[in-house]
Amino acid sequence: MATVAPSAWQTEPVPSDPRGWVDRAAEVAAVLSTDAAARDKAGATPYAEIQLLKDSGLVTLLGPVEHGGGGQHWPTAYRVVREVAKADGSIGQLLGYHYLWNWAARLVGTREQWELVEAEAARDRWFFGGAVNPRDNDVVVTEDGDDLVFTGRKSFSTGSKVSDVTVLEGVLEGTQTHVFAIVPSGSEGLTFHDDWDNIGQRLTESGTVTLDGVRTPWASAAGFVDRVFQPRVYNTLNVPTIQLVFVNLYLGIAAGALETAATYTRTRSRSWLHGGYDRAVDEPYVIDVYGDLTAKLWAAEALAEQVAQEGQKLHDDPDAVTERARGEFEVRVAAVKAVATDVALEVTSRIFEVTGARATAGAEGLDRFWRNVRTHTLHDPVAYKRREVGRLVLTGEIPEPTWYS
Length: 405
Prior knowledge:
Layout: H1 8-11, H2 18-33, H3 36-42, H4 47-56, H5 74-87, H6 89-108, H7 111-124, E1 128-131, E2 140-144, E3 147-154, E4 165-172, E5 178-184, E6 190-192, E7 209-217, E8 224-225, E9 228-229, H8 238-267, H9 284-316, H10 323-350, H11 367-376, H12 382-395
Parallel strand pairs: 1-4, 2-4
Antiparallel strand pairs: 2-3, 3-7, 4-5, 6-7, 8-9
């Protein structure tokens, strides 16, 4: 990165309210936006970008105040992801996944476990990665005395090389029991491969990871007491929580695309020679497209914020979360996920209609917004999200908790 973090971050305290944190995220986005297109093209490992997130304090947003964290709630975290994603979708994704993996200890672990993890993470400004691709079932966990040993591979490990700690997941040998544990990313036997080469989200370090006998104490197995897992309905809230990260990632990328395109149209687009207008901003069809896309984006953002508030009520009282409440929330998340996917894909593709042929030049980098949205929205089929909504409407059925619902 050619730019540096604002010096005020070194002397000013971290923000104390949601508005302050969103403003801080906007400052981070301003730094990222200066060379976002060039960094996307280079595809280099984003060490400097992650340091920016640490320097700004954004990585501590959900952490306990008494240990240096922001003490904020999920609706603020989603807004922060959206703000950062406006400038750089890859870094927005990394930050959103970090929030989920940081919170995973609370979702799955015992109180003693998550209090310890959250305190250390906030104090030392850990950045979290995760090797938890649910479609790969080839990580086997074996017991060796007081240790667990993880062996196998995962196709995706978002955050990998830039993380301080990594959330591992595997199946305990001879059982159907999944085990989650947090280990240092430099652990012996944990190897991240530089094989992420996709058309979008190019800086997310989401390539393959192999686990060759990665060891961690049994005591670090999240949610286990005396080597027996203690299930709660709240454990299953990981899916709707990360799906809302996706929603805000898409909406942030779409907002960034629209803002970037509007600046281009105002300053560089030429009016059509047969249109009868001197400026592109005065052409009725250009005005109509911007109005149409903006209205759709605003509506999706409003729904996303409403659903985030609904989810926070569940986070506020984890032990009271029922299967019905969790299921109805998942359907609300599915609905906004479907809407956000459609809106983001439309915005990022249609901006070229109102910027013009010269805006397709590689140096402009406008294509990165569409490439990023198109890549990540393939994470899981949006048709199955709409199916969840339709079934609830027609039959009252809520989705069974799975890795994707």
